[in-house]
Write a structure and sequence with these properties.
With about 140 residues, the protein is an all-alpha fold. It contains seven helices and no strands. The longest helix is centred in the first third of the chain and has 29 residues. The termini are far apart.
């Protein structure tokens, strides 16, 4: 009896690895990703990625639009103060502070016309970017 069990064990030890390798190879070759993607698949995936990126604007763009709208409704001082609050709350926006402040400066000149009137609302946010935005419009 012991001899029979040992013989079966040896047979399985030789045959089982071969069966596992063959079944694994067959499984991998039957999976769709095992073949190279077609050009249309790559283009479709690229277009889908581009459209999803185009749908969601960056946080700094959303903030810029919101602050410019706030400037139009109220005044530049309120928008600049809220810009400072947002940068303090979310420091990752600091790298966009100058571009947002410039946009606010340009929007202030569009709203008030004269550059000297827009300067009255200046705040110590993003150094002189607000003033630079005003100067660009003058």
């Amino acid at each position: 009896m012991n001899h029979v069990a040992r013989r079966i064990g040896r047979s399985l030890a030789l045959v089982l690895p071969v069966v596992l390798v063959l079944s694994g190879t067959l499984a991998v070759t039957s999976v769709p990703w095992a073949t190279a993607p077609s050009e249309s698949d790559v283009l479709a995936a690229s277009a889908q990625k581009a459209s999803s990126q185009a749908k969601a604007p960056a946080p700094h763009e959303v903030l810029r639009e919101r602050l410019v709208a706030e400037l139009q409704e109220k005044n530049p001082a309120v928008a600049l103060t809220n810009l400072q609050k947002e940068i303090t709350r979310k420091p990752s926006l600091a790298e966009h502070c100058t571009s947002i402040a410039k946009a606010l400066g340009r929007a202030a000149v569009k709203k008030y016309g004269a550059a000297y009137r827009a300067h009255q609302y200046s705040r110590p946010v993003c150094d002189t970017s607000f003033a630079y935005g005003i100067a660009q419009m003058s």
